[in-house]
Amino acid sequence: MKNRLVILAVLLATSFSAIALDVKQRFDHLDSNKDGYLTKNELDAQPQLLKQFQRWDTDQDNRVSLVEFKNFLTINLH
């Protein structure tokens, strides 16, 4: 029984790490100028993402940081 719990804990930790890495990879892919922020110009080619821009940009500085991107995805995927 203890072995099963340990295996389950390892699998959960691994899946959360994989999700975090996937979010970072998606962000990096969208961040075409590699400045660490997403802008509307970078999302022009993806209108479905551009529609979400204002919701992601929580500090209203017209750019989306990795933290804002991650927070939005984390909150809205539950």
UniProtKB/TrEMBL annotation:
It holds the Pfam family EF-hand_7. PROSITE patterns: EF_HAND_1, EF_HAND_2. SUPFAM superfamilies: EF-hand. The keyword Ubl conjugation does not apply. The keyword DNA damage does not apply. One of its GO terms (molecular function) is calcium ion binding. Residues 1-20 form the signal peptide. Residues 18-53 form the EF-hand domain. Keywords: Signal. This is EF-hand domain-containing protein.
